Structure formats: structure tokens, C-alpha cells
Amino acid sequence: MADRFRMRGTLAAGPLALALGLLLVAVATFVTTATAQFFEERFPFESRPQRGIFGAPPVAVPQRSADFSRAPASRKYEKNEAPDLSTVVVVGDSLADWLGFGLEQAFSESPEITVARRARAFSGLISSQGRLEVRGRNTDWVVTAADILAKEPANFVVMMIGLGDRDSIREPKPAAKSDSGAKPAAAGNPANPPQQADQAKPSDDEASQAEAQGADDDRPAQPRTATGAAEFKSERWVELYSKRIDETVAVLKSKGVPVFWVGLPPIRGTRSMSEVTFLNDLYRSRAEKAGIVYIDVWDGFVDESNRFTSQGPDFEGQIRRLRTSDGVHFTQAGARKLAHYVEREINRALAPTGPVAIALPVEPNADQPQGPATSGPGVAIPRPLAGPVIPLNATGERSEAEELAGASGARQSLTDAVASRVLVRGELLPAPAGRADDF
What we know:
By secondary structure, the protein is α/β, with parallel strands linked by helices. It has helices at 2-42, 94-106, 141-151, 194-200, 204-211, 235-253, 270-290, 332-350, 417-424, and strands at 86-92, 113-119, 156-160, 169-170, 229-230, 259-262, 293-295, 311-313, 319-321. The chain is extended.
């Protein structure tokens, strides 16, 4: 009898165990699918093929092409938000757009400062007849910057550009002398059909790939020896490009406000790192010659071996992903760290760093005529009521709170020379003539 009941219990537990197993498999499959969908929606560049239930063939997940050349949309900008509003105008290419986004986050708690993002993706300082006339590549920044600054109430101007300028410069050819009987070829002339000109122009996708150079070291070298073109890094190229930088700086300075030129960050790839370093040397030298501030951001986006790194400490010291998968542009954390360098310079410009001129009270004996009875070796000179006001904390040096990991370089001190000698170095000033300690 006991064996019969034991057999019935075993037969009844079989279907229950099978149902329980199927339920666990269903729950595990649901959790796996939901987790994969969660990561796919937030990290599309890290998506991997998903496998079906019970080892089914992998399911193809459609890859979405991400455009990192444009930062997230900014808040609506109003020119007349406040009468004493300080406006930071950011101009340049796609990297400048990410810089403007980071500055918006940096000044989000400062209602007296607003950021106007006026960047043009795929643009550069090279804008000759041979440039690609797609998207923003035909932007002439000498003309565009003058037009922007004429309309914007700018208090600071920030320029960051150069990503698409690693190319040859085509100089305009001199006009050829035509014969008296020859007629210029018209637009519809069969000798020069417009279809050939259209075929010579690269597509938008090719322009996008050219903008993100650096993510691939093995890309084929572009021909740079075309007729009438100055090869990149050649002496003629440096001469033409330096002239272009000087013209752009002159337009930015015409507003009469502080101008900051931000250097390029490192880009993934050995060749791209060399090209960006070459451009940064030009930007630094021309900025120093023009008397504007050059901001170096290189050390914030490399590792200890001065190599490109996509991850690193953000402006608060936390290890975050700073660069996107294309090896060129920034994540939101990287844009905020990039903006920290510019934010620091803007705050320095807003804070007083030198002697302050104030109205002094009228001396009691200032209107009385000075004669032998009121001046001389034996007559005491009245002490003035107030002297010049000098900020004692304006050392002009970088504090620990302003420093980022890897920052280097000293900054010129803006402290008054007399205050620095007495309060910093402890030197004594020469006593005025006639005073008791004048030996």
C-alpha cells in the first residue's frame, strides 16, 4: 500500500516539475530580452546580435547610424532676457557645438550668463573654389563671423575650429586671357556639361567621413599634388592658413570683447594626432601674436603616455566615457570637461584682478594754500584718509579647485607689482624722503 501511494506521488510531481521548469525558462527569456532591449535603446553603438530561445540562430539587430557632429539641442536663446546679461558667443565647427553645449551646462546655475551656439558643422577656415560645397564646408568664417557678431550682443567670443582643415588649399588661378573671337563656355555648353561637375563633387556621406578623419589610421592618403593646390603642412600652406587665421582673429576682435581661441583635442589615430598637434602650434602662435587668449585642452583628453583615450576623469574626477565611438567628438561628460577650461577663463575675466579705481574723500586741507608754514623739513605731513585699493587675493595663479587632472603650464600673474613684492616675496619698499626710517 505504501509503495502504491509513493508511486502516485512521483507521477503527480512529474508534470508539476515540468511546468515549473518551463515557467523558469520563460521568465529568464523575458528578462534577457528586456535587458538587451534596454541597452540597445541607450547604447546603440555597443549592441550585439541576440540569440533566440533554446540556441536559435542569432537575430539580426538593425544598426542605427549615429551622428555625433551635432550636440544635443540647446535651450531657447532670447537676446533680451535681462539688461545686464553676459553673452558668450561660440563659433566654429562641430567641436565648437559640443563646447557650447558644455558651456550651457557649466553656466546652468548662473542666470546672468547665457551661451549662444553659432557653430557650423563640417566647416573650416579653408574655403576656396576647390572646397567641397556640401553642408557647412562652404562657410567663409571671415564673412560669417562678422555677420554673427554684428547681430549678437556678445560679451565673450569663443572660437574652436580646424577639424576639417587637414587638407590642401587650392589657390584661385589667374584669369586666362581669351582670344577676341573666342566665346566663354556657357552653362549649357556641351563642351563643359554640368553633369561632369556634379560627378566631381563628393556626396554628403563622403564629406561626413572626411570630417571624422582620425578614427582610422589606415585611410588612403588623399592626393595633395593637384595643380594650383598647396599641400598640407607645406611652407606655402602654412603661409596661406596663417593669413586666414589672422583675418578671422581680426574679425573676432572687432567686437571689442575678450576673444578665446580653443585648441583642438587629441583625435584617435597616430596620423591624426600629428596633424592636430601641427594645427595647435599654428593656433597658439597666431593667437599670441594677435594678443588673444589661447586655451590648451590637450592634457585633459590623453592618458599618462600622451595617447588618445576615450575614457578618463571628468571635471569632478570621476572616471567617465569622454569621447564618442568615432574617436573625434565628445559625450556629454566630455563636453562638460571641455567647457571647464573655457569657463575658468571667463570667470577670470569677470573677476577683478588688478588695482581698483575708487573715488577718494576730499582731504581737509586740500583747498588751503601751501606755504612755508605748512610745508618743510620740520612740519609734519598730514596722513591721507585713504590710499589705493588693491585686491590682496588676486594672485593670478591657478588654485586647486580650478585644476583638472593633467593640466600643465603656468599663467602670467596679474597681481599688482608692489603688492606682490611686499606680500608674496616679503621685500621692503624704499622709505619716502623725509620719513623717520629714511636713512
